[in-house]
Design brief:
The chain has two domains: about 1-95, no CATH class; about 105-200. The radius of gyration is 19 Å and the shape is globular. Strand 7 (about 90) and strand 8 (about 90-95) form a beta hairpin. The two termini are about 30 Å apart. The protein has strands spanning about 1-10, 10-20, 25-35, 40-50, 55-70, 75-80, 90, 90-95, 95-105, 110-120, 130-140, 145-150, 155-165, 170-180, 185-195. It contains no helices and 15 strands. The strands form two sheets. The protein has a 13-stranded antiparallel sheet, with no helix packed on it. The protein is an all-beta fold.
Length: about 200
């Protein structure tokens, strides 16, 4: 799988390619917009999804929206509503999803804790809730380490370890390893962020 993104202030573009998704290839193009400041910000992600099967190709459109509220530099609260327009793939309708998360800075710019709860739009919320929790630590200026677990009230589904390197010139390199509930590695991710102002043509 691959992903590429470009951000310019409050405007962002994201391209994602999933090579194998239930015997189909899924590509998406997203336009992200945000407004606000340090105290409160609101944003939307407007996405076109192309699904290519063995003998057909279809396109869909979905909208996500959310906000971040940060009353102090030590605490922030976020909310996200996904699939607001209730995307339908063939005859299957995806429910709206909601996420609520918080971050607490135990030691500013050094140690942060975060939690998030996710649930779908349905009546049986007690059986349809998942979440994640973790922390990040920055022992030195150019290195940040993150770890978190995801699951529901019955089982931990996945754990993730991430290292983020902040390089000279504003370049950022990150690498992640994902583990299942048996502590087996399931996949790796790598990302490189390039500040375009450092590139001349």
């Amino acid at each position: 799988n691959s992903l590429a993104s470009l951000s310019m202030g409050n405007l962002g573009f994201v391209y994602q390619d999933i090579y194998s998704f239930e015997n189909s290839r899924l590509t998406s193009y997203a336009l992200n917009l945000s407004v606000g400041g340090d105290l409160f910000s609101f944003g939307t992600s407007n996405k076109i999804i192309n699904v290519t099967g063995l003998d057909n190709q279809t396109s869909y459109f979905t909208i996500n929206a959310g906000f971040i509220f940060q009353p102090t530099e030590y605490f922030s609260l976020g909310f996200l509503a996904s699939n607001i327009n209730k995307l339908e793939l063939d005859l299957f309708q995806y429910r709206r999803g909601y996420s609520v998360g918080a971050k607490i800075a135990i030691v500013r710019n050094v140690l942060n804790l975060f939690v998030q709860t996710d649930f779908k739009e349905r009546k049986e919320l007690s059986t349809n809730v998942s979440g994640s929790a973790g922390f990040s630590i920055q022992p030195i200026n150019f290195l940040e380490l993150r770890t978190w677990i995801m699951g529901n009230k019955n089982i931990i589904d996945e754990g993730i370890l991430t290292a983020i390197f902040k390089l000279e010139g504003g370049f950022i390199l990150s690498a992640s390893a994902h583990f299942n509930d048996a502590r087996e590695k399931t996949r790796y991710n790598a990302m490189l962020a390039i500040p375009l102002q450092t590139i001349s043509f």
